[in-house]
Amino acid sequence: MKKFLAAPLALVALALVLGAFTTPTVQAQEELVNMWVVPRGQIMVLRLYDEPNPLGTTMATIPAGMEIKVHVDQMYNKYWYKTEEGYYAHRYYLTDVDPAYDPEAERAQMSQEDLAREQELLEKYNDIRIVNAIMAQAVPQVSWTMEMVIDSWGNPDDRQTIEKPMGSEYTWIYYEPPGGINRTVIKFDHRRVVINVATDR
Predict the structure, then answer these.
(1) Which residue has the higher pLDDT, 22 or 96?
(2) Domain end: 84, 110, 136, which one?
(3) Could you say which DSSP state residue 193 is in?
(4) Of residues 88, 94, 104, 91, the one with CA closest to residue 65
């Protein structure tokens, strides 16, 4: 009987020893984003629920105009964000535009050169949010085109192309992009549209 028990116990011990030398899996940190509560009709507060469901239990309320941190990379039923505290907020009552932001005051500080570039980008993309992101040299977003990425960060330090049945896929690497980031890898699909952005901060 001892011989039959010895083999399984030896295997368990070996697994534990090997596990001790295995590099643990590091999960990507979820990025929190600042958003603001906006009033909708007669509703002047944002309700935070214990689950992504308006029939759930209300855990807290936040008045319109107040700031909140949410995980925008975690969508629940296409309408819910998870908050920093682990509650759920309906995105219909949230905006990523700071109510204190005064675009006219900011424009008054812009040089003629920047104003001319802004106008050129608006004529090209017809989207003020994309233009603002490009002007600020923000991290490129999924669905951006190659041209948008170049307009924001310039040409990449390295390029790779992989041929696939559906067409070529492209990888661009920026080793020292704007914003004090160490390295960013941007992947494009066969349409030359961004499908993934990985940043080492």
Answers:
(1) 96
(2) 136
(3) B
(4) 94
- In this structure, the answer to whether residues 52 and 38 fall within a common structural domain is yes
pLDDT confidence tier of residue 8, bands split at 50, 70 and 90: low
- What does the DSSP 8-state code read for residue 107? H
For residues 104 and 127, what is the distance between their CA atoms, to the nearest angstrom? 17
pLDDT exceeds 70 at position 3: no
Q: Which residues pair with 35 in a beta bridge?
A: 68
For the question of whether the overall pTM of this predicted structure is more than 0.85, the answer is no
Residue 194 sits in a domain of what CATH number?
3.30.1450
| Cβ atoms of residues 162 and 169 within 8 Å | yes
Instruction: Report CA-CA distances (Å) from 84 to 29, 46, 70, 88, 132.
Output: 13, 15, 6, 9, 27
Q: Which residue intervals of the chain are DSSP H helices? A: 2-20, 103-108, 112-125, 128-135, 146-153
Label residue 190 exposed, middle or buried (CB < 10 Å: 0-12, 13-18, 19+). middle
Statement to judge: residues 74 and 113 lie in one domain:
no
CA distances from residue 65 to 7, 39, 94, 95, 105 in whole angstroms, order as listed: 65, 8, 10, 10, 20
